[in-house]
Amino acid sequence: MNSFSITRTGTYLTIQDFGRFHLQHLGISSSGAMDQRVLKELAQVISDHQNQFLEFAYVGPSLKVQEGAIKVSVGGFCKIFVQKKNNTQIEHQPYTSINLFEGDELTINNTISSVYGYIAIENGLGLKPCLQSHSTDTKAQIGSINRPLQIGDTFQIKKDVSSWELQSSEGLQNLNQTHFKVYPGPQISYFSDEVIKTFISQPFKITSQSDRMGLRLEGPSLFSHLSHDILSEGILPGSIQVPSNGKPIVLMRDIPCTGGYPKIAILSSEDISKIAQLLPGTFINFDLESQSI
Amino acid sequence: MYFKEINHYGDRGLIIDFGIESSKDISQEINATIIYLKNLKLPALNTIPSYNKIVLHFKNTEDKQKSIQTLEIMMKDFRPLDIKRPYKSWNIPTCYESQYALDLERVQKFHDLSIQEIINLHTKKIYYNYYIGFMPGFPYLGEISSKLITPRLSSPRVRIPARSVGIAKEHTCIYPKVSPGGWNIIAQVPFDIFSLEHSRTSLFLPGDEVEFSKVTQGEFEKIQNKNFLFDEIIKEFSQ
Fold it and tell me: Which residues in chain B are closer than 8 Å to A257, comparing Cβ atoms?
């Protein structure tokens, strides 16, 4: 048996995968990792990850091997250290495999110029899926573990590491993209041409009131000439909704399943992962693509 | 037929539009459409009904493009009346005692009705479950009596007890879990309406009908103490 414990949680440490589907009609959102590109890249390093990744925001966790040995890899932009049993400290790079033996403690420092980081563990975390996914939705209290992880949480991994050979992938470049392609939202006609012009010509700032549910933006107010209150309808991640204060919100992974605010636009799906990594204070611009059936 | 058109919703979404109104007829057509779509086996990750829309979410743009073509053809032949109702009718024991009815007094003053009149108005109707939203298993039931239409709380409550029955605007609801929220709480039900242990997950499904029956504190506690599982609740309180 191999096991490790959480010895420092960092910030908002949860279990995530690529999402929970086919249940949004029962009020259950897709959830899943905020930056899904990182999971795909980590899968190149740790192929047998069992779809059980750890996600953290800003401050990384510490993990200590209690028994046996495990193999992990860290994704994101951050400094990674391993404190060995004999008190030596070794630095590791993201997107490389890291072998950890009994007594070793892995510590991940703050994410650099980005928000989310991830850990893949060979053979997973020994968890059963909940409603066909391991993702934690803390608001709905759904998941293999239905809350953020705590110090002392211990994971048992029955299977032994297959090989100690070093594996690595190219990793992801921090592109710092700040221009985002958007498509017209279902209620784009609720906004005048002038407001739409403002939306695509002015920069918007990501505020610190941003989390797994959504990014609140600051900038010119986008007022509808019709209404900011529509009959609730299904919403998708990436939607940019505008409540009556005129301040747009980009909906992210843990969204409510239906919403009653008009949606001026929706991000290109690929860009949801990219925008998730932008720090509060970053200015972004939207480029509106036309779309017809 | 209320079906109007199919529109894009981003690069992986479609939105099927049934107009701007909301009514039981529209909702029934929507729920019949959902069953019809299921039979078409579209590769959608999620199919989300609401008052007058169905949103479809796909894994990638290719799946979406293929589905548009199928939908454009198949929606032409669709006759909602041909779809048989597989829905359930529920009769839910409900306790309106003051300890559960946090806002009953305020609602009573707002409408200048007696508490008994409000309970009568709330229990005498059969509600239609338009859809589930807001939180897992949260049913939007309508319409309530026009005499009971009450605005949401001006400042939402931080903590509404699980199983609370609320009213707001034309609808009534049950909170599956403890939650913040702005509905006026007028009663409580004696069992959970959301379960990760049962394949149904949500006790009420879109299209179901729900009736509330007033029970006394004693009856309420008796049912509560039985800790019913979903299968027992279904057997006892639905048809």
Answer: 48, 132-134
Six-digit token pair at A161? 């590491």
Phi, psi of A194 (to 5 degrees): -65, -45
What is the dihedral angle through the alpha carbons of A211, A216, A217, A221, rounded to the nearest 10 degrees? 180
Copy the structure tokens of residue A260.
């009653």
Q: Cα B222–B226–B227 angle (5° rounding)?
A: 125
Interface contact B177-A141, CB threshold 8 A = yes
Residues with Cβ within 8 Å of residue A197, at least 6 apart in sequence? none
Query: Model's pTM, two decimal places?
Result: 0.93
Cβ distance A236 to B9 less than 8 Å, yes or no, reads: yes
H or E, element range at B184: strand B184-188
Whether residue A293 and residue B12 make contact (CB cut-off 8 A), yes or no, is no
Q: List CB contacts (< 8 A) between B205 and chain A.
A: 26
Q: What is the pLDDT of residues A207-252, one digit of tens each?
A: 999 999 999 999 999 999 999 989 999 999 999 999 999 999 999 9
pLDDT at site A293: 45
Q: How far apart are CA B52 and CA B16, in angstroms?
A: 9
By the 8 A CB rule, do B149 and B218 touch? Answer: no
Planar angle of CA A13, A18, A23, nearest 5 degrees = 105
pLDDT in tens, A28-58: 999 999 999 999 999 999 999 999 999 999 9
Q: Is B182 on the interface with A (CB under 8 A)?
A: no
